[in-house]
From TrEMBL:
This is Nudix hydrolase domain-containing protein. Residues 145-253 form the Nudix hydrolase domain.
Length: 290
């Protein structure tokens, strides 16, 4: 929309020209000045305003500024797990792929294909100058799995942090964690939506209160624990939160409610989560992420 000063001056100039279709020479200076002022106002004022980049979550607390999941460079795509296998096998250490889904706590190549297919992870080939992991080399590029993660530090009434100690996987193996509740984010998903989804799917609760001012983002780069030999970049979006209805003390477990696709596809999935409350006076839980 054109700014108000431009509309006023443009209208004023048009009215004058309509009233005096043949201006006398003394009036030409007045017309020229009015037209110039209109043009200056038009080009000095923006024609539109940009929407804010950040998203604001309004809930039981005040507004909390957060980000959506970042959109990395376009991911490599594969039509089937078999095509992914053929492409990735020569680009990994010789014994890496054989351990996926075979070593306790790891996931299968089928799991990786599902992550890429549904947008939970991106598989990239980056020039060495853009990558710090220095692994999975393919000529002049580096193979990298990129994941946006929502990490939720849930505290009880005495300030202890809820930590997932381990998971029971569908193949009967145990996957050790020792980290706060976390969830892979979908492309463009707001942090608060991913947090609510994580609480609902892993803890079975529908209400979460995000503490204002607690949002933090940082990036980790390390070899993936789920896919040994595959370098990974984790973009961590962390918040503090409160969830009602959880046990206040001791250890407990919950059933996973969000991995139906993995189950239907006969990929490895989480059956149960095991939790405990941990004092974090020394910041050890924060360091567990990196």
């Amino acid at each position: 929309m054109r700014p108000l000063p431009s509309l006023v001056t443009a209208g004023f100039t048009a009215a004058l020209l309509s009233a005096f279709p043949f201006p006398s020479p003394p009036n030409l200076l007045f017309f020229a000045a009015a037209a110039s002022f209109s043009v200056v106002c038009l080009f000095r004022s923006p024609l539109s305003t940009s929407a804010p980049v950040s998203r604001r979550h309004r809930g039981p607390y005040h507004a909390v500024t957060m980000r959506r999941a970042d959109s990395p460079p376009p991911s490599l795509s594969f039509s089937s797990p078999e095509s992914l296998n053929d492409w990735i096998r020569p680009r990994l250490p010789s014994d890496a792929l054989a351990s996926w889904g075979a070593s306790p706590g790891t996931k299968s190549l089928h799991n990786l294909w599902l992550e890429i297919f549904h947008g939970e992870a991106s598989l990239l080939l980056l020039p060495h100058s853009q990558d710090e992991t220095r692994g999975g080399e393919d000529g002049s590029s580096t193979l990298l799995r990129v994941v946006n993660v929502a990490a939720v530090r849930i505290r009880n009434s005495r300030g202890a942090v809820l930590v997932e100690s381990h998971q029971l996987l569908s193949d009967g193996t145990i996957r050790h964690r020792y980290r706060p509740l976390s969830e892979k984010m979908m492309p463009g998903e707001p942090v608060e939506a991913a947090v609510a989804r994580a609480v609902r799917e892993e803890l079975g609760k529908d209400v979460v209160k995000i503490v204002p001012g607690s949002y933090n983002m940082r990036v980790e780069e390390r070899t993936s624990a789920s896919y040994p030999g595959l370098p990974a970049r984790y973009v961590l979006h962390s918040v503090d939160a409160e969830v009602d209805g959880l046990p206040e003390e001791g250890e407990f477990s919950t059933e996973e409610n969000g991995e139906g696709i993995e189950a239907m596809e006969k990929a490895i999935f989480v059956r149960r989560h095991f939790w405990k409350w941990v004092n974090d006076d020394d910041g050890s839980i924060e360091r567990a992420w990196g």
